[in-house]
Model the fold of this input.
Amino acid sequence: MRNWIGCALFLGSLAATASLAQGAPHQSASRAPDSDGRLDVAVTYGTVLAKDSSNSDFWLQGGSVQVEGFIWRGLGAVADVTGEHVANINSTGVNLDMIVATFGPRVTWRPGHGRLALFGQGLGGVANGFNGAFPSPTGVQTVATSLAFKVGGGVNYSLSHHLALRLVEADWLRTQLPNENDSVQNDVYLGAGLVLRIK
Done:
């Protein structure tokens, strides 16, 4: 329950900030298209909707750091490191910590070169699960590693030349950590936060 309250407060503060920014003088927001060579750093709160071995839902809570370099117009390359945690999954006594590191292309589009920027991405990398329970031929292990794929997109809202809000990011997150079923996880990642424009 506390996680949901924290999430609601965080998203509410983001909405309030965006509303205030919209009422600010129009020229304060960056209206320029994404420029070649620019570097963005995003720090976000994130949550993952996953399923346990009995197909019941549970949520992991955490966040991510993303670094994006713009290569040409709206085309960029992104490195994304996400960390998530959940304790006592569905009252089973099983915990899970997970770090997912992915890299890949992102395409950003600004409708009318305004404050909103929409992006889509396809990333690949590695997922590392630890402090959990992963079945194996030799018994249950507490650590496991697998390939990871993250496909989705989101919306940024420009506050100034150097700062933007990540209003929402939604991704399909696929991992292949060992479990009691098919050792495939098709999860949903949701995030929001701040984007700092370095250059």
Q: What stands out?
A: The two ends are 40 Å apart (CA to CA). The beta strands are 39-51, 57-72, 75-86, 96-109, 116-136, 139-158, 163-175, 185-197. Confidence is low (pLDDT under 50) at residues 1-32. The CA atoms of residues 51 and 57 lie 4 Å apart.
